[in-house]
Amino acid sequence: MCGHLSDPRTFSSHRRVRCGLRIDGLPDSPTTNQPVHSQEAFTRGPHTGGMSETPDEITLSTDGFAMPTVEVLTGRGFITGKSGSGKSNTASVVCEELLDAGAPLLIVDTDGEYYGLKERYELLHVGGDDRCDLRIGVDDADRLARVALDRGIPVVLDISGFDDPDEGRAVVGAVVERLFAREKQARTPFLLVVEEAHEFVPQQGGLDDVGETLVRVAKRGRKRGLGMCALSQRPASVSKDYITQCDWLVWHRLTWDNDTAVVSRILGSEAAEDVQDLDDGEAIVQTDWDGEVRLVRFRRKRTFDAGATPDLEDIERPELKSVDDDLIAELRGDGDGADDTADTATAETADASPEGRDATGTGATATGGTGGTAGASGHASGDPASDTAWEAAQFLTFLSRRLVAAVTWLVTRTGALSGRALSWTADRLARTPSGRRRVESLLPKVALLVVGILLGAVLVVVFG
């Protein structure tokens, strides 16, 4: 970037380029550009009914800023900004556009705010309390992944209602694992949206099983069609293993030094200054597919803002849409189970491959009753290199080999130095007849001592 964006409101709509930085979405325009449609189509689930052409692009601002649909669905995105800057609104706009396009997605909702999308769209809202369409647990992970991926039904996974936060994390980990595993066969463009990414993939403190799973999706999901968009108020607190995988990034207003330092490392010091002065809804958008950096004002979302800060006035909640009652009954196990049996057989076929193995590595999956996997932390990757246990074993093997090599080198060097020291000492002592007699008497004892030390070191390395 060259030049500052300290007051982007001063730009006129006809001024499209400023020092190489494209300006989109400023100022607001009363017209909205319609996206171009392609010949390809997604298979839509029962919530939309039938086939429909999918637009090549999704339009995110009132004056036509758009991003390629497939790049958003299968790529790696990161949306950040301090509270009130427009971060969650931008994520909702992306979701609205994808839902309009009939594209499948699953939202990991940490604060219970994305159910507002149900004002316009038929979504399955699941979570840990009775506010949801359906209460779920870890055992429902496989069934939920099938509903989202195989049937194309949009899902809001609301973990804000779990009394035990660890239970919510376990559900997220199990569902994401099943999505990753099933995408090997499905190959359907699908977006996973994750709020509060710093809680799952933190920069400090290391990654647990859930974090490892999400990073695996970031690194390996694209080839299967599984995309991911993470959100956080604090980019400095998000693992750089994730941010460095992203091919589209949205930087809303940031003011903390640690956060603007991340912007500086990625976009330069001038962008780090500009990002501090952005208005609500404005963002610096970086897209790898065209190498552009733009200033964009995202439109307001069209659905109910369930995440708005409450005030003293009563909030008028709209009537919300939901998925078909038959699907809810099926997921609860109230149906005849015919469809579930077929889906379970498909899941067992997938699990028979290395891609669907559970945490024990045996490929066994518990499908009775709930149709879910037996546990939240089993890794479901077909490539052994993507399994955490396999990676740990490889790492320990590497360390063991390095330790043996280091001990061997140390013993060899110690033996050589000891030999030189003994030779020098013996030479000094053997200059007189009495000294030679002392050397002759001590030499066998010293030799036995050295052999004992070396033998002890070898035994420690081999059996320790």
- What top-tier CATH class of the largest domain fits best? Alpha Beta
What CATH architecture of the largest domain would you give?
3-Layer(aba) Sandwich
Beta-strand segment tally: 16
Q: What is the radius of gyration computed over CA atoms, rounded to a whole number of angstroms?
A: 30 Å
Q: pLDDT under 50 segments (min length 5)? A: 1-51, 335-386
Query: Main β-sheet: number of strands, strand sense, barrel status?
Result: 12 strands, mixed
Q: Which bin fits the share of residues in helices?
A: 25-40%
Protein structure class:
alpha/beta
CATH domain fold name of the largest domain: Rossmann fold
- Report the span from N to C terminus: 57 Å
How many domains comprise the coordinates? Answer: 2
The number of helical elements comes to: 12
Overall, the morphology is elongated
What topology, given as strand order, has the largest sheet?
A: 1-2-16-15-14-7-13-12-8-11-9-10
Order of helices and strands: EEEEEEHEHEEEHEHEHEHEHHEEHHHH
Mean pLDDT: 76
Supply the key terms.
about 475 residues; alpha/beta; Rossmann fold; two-stranded antiparallel sheet; disordered N terminus
Question: Can you offer a commentary on this structure?
Answer:
- With 464 residues, the protein is an alpha/beta fold.
- The protein has 2 domains: 8-325, Rossmann fold, CATH 3.40.50; 388-463.
- 39% of the residues lie in helices and 16% in strands.
- The protein has helices spanning 69-74, 87-100, 141-149, 165-186, 209-220, 240-243, 257-267, 269-274, 325-332, 338-352, 388-429, 433-463, and strands spanning 17-18, 21-24, 37-43, 51-55, 57-59, 66-68, 76-80, 105-109, 124-127, 134-135, 155-158, 190-194, 226-232, 248-251, 282-287, 292-297.
- A 12-stranded mixed beta sheet has the order 1-2-16-15-14-7-13-12-8-11-9-10, with helices on both faces. Strands 3-4 form a two-stranded antiparallel ribbon. The protein has a two-stranded antiparallel sheet with strand order 5-6.
- A hairpin with a 4-residue loop joins strand 15 (282-287) and strand 16 (292-297).
- The two termini are 57 Å apart.
